[in-house]
Amino acid sequence: MQAEQNELITRIGPGTACGALMRHYWQPAALLDEFDPRWDLRMAERPVKTVRLLGQDLVLFRDQAGRWGLIDRDCPHRGADLAFGRHEGDGLRCPFHGWKFAVDGTCLETPAEPYGSTLCQRVRQRSYPVREQAGVLFAWLGPEDGTPPELPAFDAFRAPASHSFAFKGLWRCNWLQAFEVGIDPSHASYLHRFLQDESTDHAYGRQFRGASVGQVQGQRWPMTKVLREFARPEIRHEALADGLTRLTTLRPIDDALTHVRVTNAAFPYTFVIPLSETITITQMHVPVDDVSTYWYSFFTSFGEPLDKEEMRRQRLACVSLPDYVPLRGRHDQWGYDPAEQRTRTYLGMGEHDINVHDQWAVESMGAIQDRTREHLGTSDKVIMANRRMLLKAIETVQAGGTPPLVLTGEQAAAMTGPDTIDCIAPAQGWEAFWATQARAKRDGAAWLNPQTEAAT
Fold first, then answer.
1. Which of 46, 122, 142, 184 could form a disulfide linkage to 146, CB 3.0–4.6 angstroms apart?
2. DSSP conformation letters of 75-121
């Protein structure tokens, strides 16, 4: 890749070509949990948070009526920092001269002005649409006169609160390398290789520790065994829609059986993968700025309600609040242990939180990966295809067109799923086998099928 192309696809601030593309989409801005006093005591008194998103500095707050506001951080009067504003129920007041702003950016008061002044009526702080979905607050940073698109009707955005859970974490790197690790099917056999298996009884909420659907000679194999022993996968990708790609990874076991892993990539930075037989992860990689990224994971259950307290406990143990910064990082070599690397894991950076594995991979590349130094192979076919799509989408926006997955209400309602699975299937007829298993998973979900709930 040429240096100019690498700059084009990684820079997302205001006025950049890729930034203009990104501003067509809803961006996760915060977890609802971030406004829960259990995790941040300050929220009980003052529900206000700073947000940096696509290189812009913003303030997110909730008023006494429960409405959300996202506004530019610099006061339109003299540029003071509204992150220190006085939360007064109906709005946020700048302590510098008392100017007050509602959640929609309306200027409510300019108290230092003479009586009768109409300045307040002529001032407005830039505000951005906010919507609450699946435990996350989404923001749209498009033009003021623009119309936000609809989110696709993915399972992650449709599941009830009982069957969904959201979490996030910060990586010190550019958004694109963060996303590319998730659409790379072959890396799991190496980066996430465990040298021993363990009982799947304690696999809840842990990636790759559970068993695949299906059996080999009457045995249910854990994913760790499959990834470790069959490390040269065949990778296929096909477009389900413009911007939505199904990735199928085949790991032949013997003449009769193959392992099938089906995942999905949704433009510009979302992937959908299986966590277990009944739980799916939808993960978005949101540019904070050019050199840092928040990943947002949406866990969706098609079986029992999620144990959200347990899932939260597992993950909070690995980050510091209130900003969800990983405890591991470059400062401590991501917890690298050469003894562990010899005896327990391929990487040597822990067995319980594989996010650290991905974090090392993408942060160790540098803040912005230099793609001019890469040597890509056949196993990188999905990475190459995604970059071509990204370059084409930037060209489309520059020409005044609409990029992939910017959806109308009708289009969004029709974009459901997408299905994922890890399964051991017949080598002949694996396509029908995995589709049948995925359909059975969906048919068994009470929140998708009211008749299922009525029968239980």
1. 142
2. -TTT--BGGG-EE-SS-EE-TTT--EE-TT-BEEE-TTSPTT--HHH
What is the per-residue DSSP string for 211-248?
BPBS-BTTB--BHHHHHHH--S-EEEEEEEETTEEEEE
| Token pair for 360 | 């090392």
Cis ω for the linkage preceding 287 (within 30 of 0)? no
Say which DSSP state 57 is in.
E
Chain centroid offset of residue 449 CA: 26
As a whole number of angstroms, the distance between CA 167 and CA 319 comes to: 11
- Please name the helix (run of DSSP H) or strand (run of DSSP E) that holds residue 447, with its range, or none: none
For 161-193, write each residue's pLDDT tens digit.
999 999 999 999 999 999 999 999 999 999 999
Strand order in the sheet with 68-72: 48-53, 56-62, 68-72
Chain segment 95-122, per-residue pLDDT in tens: 999 999 999 999 999 999 999 999 999 9
Using CA atoms, how far apart are residues 235 and 233, in angstroms rounded to an integer? 6
Q: First and final CA of the chain: distance in angstroms?
A: 55
69-83 burial by CB neighbour count: b if 16+ within 10 A, else e? bbbbbbbbbeebebb
Evaluated on CA atoms 14, 270, 314, 159, the torsion sign reads positive
